[in-house]
TrEMBL record:
Top-level taxonomic group: Eukaryota
GO cellular component: plasma membrane
Mode of membrane association: Single-pass membrane protein; Single-pass type I membrane protein
Protein name, UniProt field: Leucine-rich repeat-containing N-terminal plant-type domain-containing protein
Keywords carried by this UniProt record: Glycoprotein, Leucine-rich repeat, Membrane, Receptor, Repeat, Signal, Transmembrane, Transmembrane helix
Amino acid sequence: MLLTTINIFFMLTSSTPLADFTTDRDALLAFKKAITVDTSGALSKKWLTNTSICDWAGVSCGIKHQRVTGLDLSNFGLHGILSLHLGNLTFLQYLDASSNNFTGVLPAELSKLRRLKLVNATCNNFNGQIPRGILTNMTTLEYIDLRFNNLTGALPSNICNNTPKLKRLSLIMNQIYGKIPRSIHKCSNMEELSLSTNMFNGNIPTEVGNLTMLTLLSIYDNDLQDALLAFKKAITVDTNGVLSNNWLTNTSICDWVGVSCGIKHHRVTALNLSNFALYGSLSPHLGNLTFLLSLDVSSNYFTGVLPAELSKLRRLKQVNVTYNNFSGEIPRGILTNMSVLEYIDLRFNSLSGALPSDICNNTPKLKQLLLKMNQIYGKIPRNIHKCSKLEELRLSMNMFSGNIPTEVGNLSMLTTLSLCSNDLLGNYINP
Ligand SMILES: *[C@@H]1O[C@H](CO)[C@@H](O)[C@H](O)[C@H]1NC(C)=O
Ligand SMILES: *[C@@H]1O[C@H](CO)[C@@H](O)[C@H](O)[C@H]1NC(C)=O
Ligand SMILES: *[C@@H]1O[C@H](CO)[C@@H](O)[C@H](O)[C@H]1NC(C)=O
Ligand SMILES: *[C@@H]1O[C@H](CO)[C@@H](O)[C@H](O)[C@H]1NC(C)=O
Ligand SMILES: *[C@@H]1O[C@H](CO)[C@@H](O)[C@H](O)[C@H]1NC(C)=O
Ligand SMILES: *[C@@H]1O[C@H](CO)[C@@H](O)[C@H](O)[C@H]1NC(C)=O
Ligand SMILES: *[C@@H]1O[C@H](CO)[C@@H](O)[C@H](O)[C@H]1NC(C)=O
Ligand SMILES: *[C@@H]1O[C@H](CO)[C@@H](O)[C@H](O)[C@H]1NC(C)=O
Ligand SMILES: *[C@@H]1O[C@H](CO)[C@@H](O)[C@H](O)[C@H]1NC(C)=O
Ligand SMILES: *[C@@H]1O[C@H](CO)[C@@H](O)[C@H](O)[C@H]1NC(C)=O
Ligand SMILES: *[C@@H]1O[C@H](CO)[C@@H](O)[C@H](O)[C@H]1NC(C)=O
Ligand SMILES: *[C@@H]1O[C@H](CO)[C@@H](O)[C@H](O)[C@H]1NC(C)=O
């Protein structure tokens, strides 16, 4: 439908005479050559040199001039790179390569296409930077949809310099970092700006407020770099210079030392800074790393409290902060409401306070609760039996008092229980 509209539009506005279309043919053949897997056989069966390119699957041509105006290859099951020779399809208005398995970079040559209105490359595995020209110098471009790829780099500071028609820019689910450039306000026809789930940092520039046509702005889930920079800021001494030399804002956080990201979604899944000789406190901003599965800051010199914000992390399975000098109470949420938490190792710190009476209320997966060598006092709560998967419970060298609750006997998976050096009444024999 859109294609037809575009073609008719083209016929009405174009006065270009019939042209030799071997250029287009050569460009399409070069495109075909760069395809490594043609799952559905669309190209191998339907892009034959003895037929007109205008009859090839996914190819649309202008009715009069027979030049390629549209390429709709969505969902063709293609693997390979997007050939830079597409930049020779000078009449192209519509390029849809969505939902394939393209890899490599988006060719910068696309920005040579002075009639291009739509680029759809969503749901592929494109990587590298978005070619500068595409975002700064495409006078006819209206739609760019690059969602769900592996694109990285920063947006050019002069974005929108000469893209006056751009209505929709969708970059959701990539790894684009840096600031959202102020120059964005020059895209004065922008209706939809979707930047969520990337790694942008800083504030939304006030200039976004000048986009008067904007009806949709999505920027959530972008604060990963901010969260890690806040973490870095709370480090007072970085003995080996690991963070100061490696955690640089001009690189992707997924390349930062100690940071691991999910292969597909590129969110931070693990932070492991064990034994880095770090001094300082643990930033509450860690609570913004919503995809975090594992946190290991063991064997450092951290002080201060464990941030309660950790309990916001609904995917967190492993917490290891042993061998530091954390103090204060263990945030209640961590011991009562972490539905996937498997182990928590808080040994050898200066944690104090009592355990919450509703401990284990919603920590059904907890296997190891290691609190050895702290200053935790009060009774061992009866509710402990709700941690029915508990295998290892180490409470020795604290200041627990009172009776050992009989409910501990209900923990049928328990293989290690250590309680020595407390003021507990009664004997409990370590199995
Ligand atoms: C596309 O154009 C470039 C520059 O004009 C040229 O070097 C290249 O050979 C062309 N590609 C094809 C496949 O004709
Ligand atoms: C084009 O060539 C293929 C084989 O390469 C053949 O099967 C087909 O019949 C030919 N089509 C025309 C229209 O000549
Ligand atoms: C890409 O290929 C993988 C397997 O190689 C497949 O699971 C996935 O669905 C493909 N993606 C698309 C969009 O076709
Ligand atoms: C913008 O694109 C046009 C046409 O491709 C080119 O001539 C011009 O040099 C480009 N301008 C910039 C600033 O890149
Ligand atoms: C791009 O393609 C996807 C899937 O093929 C589709 O859902 C989306 O609407 C397209 N985007 C634009 C801007 O046309
Ligand atoms: C994403 O791109 C990076 C390089 O930029 C590469 O190391 C990584 O393997 C890519 N991820 C996927 C899923 O292809
Ligand atoms: C943005 O809008 C404000 C008023 O709403 C105006 O004062 C300002 O000059 C505009 N900025 C730009 C860059 O257009
Ligand atoms: C990043 O910035 C640092 C200095 O701040 C510089 O030394 C380094 O070369 C830059 N790296 C890249 C990839 O630009
Ligand atoms: C963290 O890194 C250390 C050293 O490389 C390793 O021994 C430890 O198992 C890692 N922690 C986690 C939770 O993977
Ligand atoms: C990130 O964490 C800080 C500290 O907990 C909080 O103030 C801020 O609102 C969080 N940001 C987002 C976007 O959740
Ligand atoms: C926590 O880290 C320490 C090393 O820093 C390691 O010895 C210990 O086994 C880890 N705890 C768990 C439960 O894996
Ligand atoms: C740990 O912190 C406590 C205060 O919270 C302090 O009294 C103690 O000396 C510290 N221990 C070490 C080994 O630094």
